[in-house]
Amino acid sequence: MTSSGESKSVRVFVIDDHPLLVEGIRGILEREADMRFCGGATSAAEGLARVCEARPDVCVVDVHLPDGNGIDLTETIRSRLSETRVLVLSICEDRVFAERALRAGANGYLAKIHAPAKLIEAIRQCAEGKIYLSEDTTSVLLSRLVPVRNAPPPGVERLSEREFQVFERLGEGLTNPEIAEQCCLSVRTVETYYGRIKEKLNLANTARLRQFAIQWSRENCAA
């Protein structure tokens, strides 16, 4: 990138449910001569509307949003704004989230544990149309290409996008009505998804599923 003029600055929009984080990223961007903060939002609905107006070069999207999730939002943004690149942020340095983000059309995936310099590096690479993953995430993804003797059968990665959303919220300790509200489903439909998830994960009952989901969340989504 070049800092010869504002017209060549990378315009960045930030969507995260924590206003302090939005402002924090804004401050980081303002220290860079080749970048410009062009707006922020704290929900998926607000973010989508404002991104379509701002048409940024890069949109930084959090995985967890109060009215949806960053993976679905990424897919929608990319379908409406083909020139806008998306960098997904998460508390998790996790292969499953990274894979889902890339499949949704994201150009990068970064865990929030990294230093601001990594964020800037990620935004620059995304703006250039490159794929950005941290070294740790890349290592985990590449490890899948190496066959492992006696490896356990496929697990969470077998879940559909909707099944994974329900499973993820179950791991966060949400009740059935809370999951239903966040996923825009009925409680009965949530319970139907439980049945599908249990079958794919080979779990005996809902209590075992909840225990597994909470344990998975602790291991893969540690702050």
Produce a short descriptive summary:
With 223 residues, the chain is α/β, with parallel strands linked by helices. It is built from ten helices and eight strands. α7 (161-171) packs across α8 (176-183) and α7 packs across α10.
Structure description:
This protein has 223 residues and is an alpha/beta fold. The chain has two domains: 6-142, Response regulator (Rossmann fold, 3-Layer(aba) Sandwich); 156-220, Orthogonal Bundle (Arc Repressor Mutant, subunit A). It contains ten helices and eight strands. It has helices at residues 19-30, 44-54, 70-80, 95-103, 116-127, 135-143, 161-171, 176-183, 187-201, 206-220, and strands at residues 10-15, 35-41, 58-62, 64-65, 68-69, 85-90, 108-111, 132-133. The strands form two sheets. A six-stranded parallel sheet has the order 2-1-3-6-7-8, with helices on both faces. It has a two-stranded antiparallel sheet with strand order 4-5. Helix 4 links the parallel strand 6 and strand 7. The protein is globular, with a radius of gyration of 18 Å. Mean pLDDT is 85; it is low at 1-6 and 148-153.
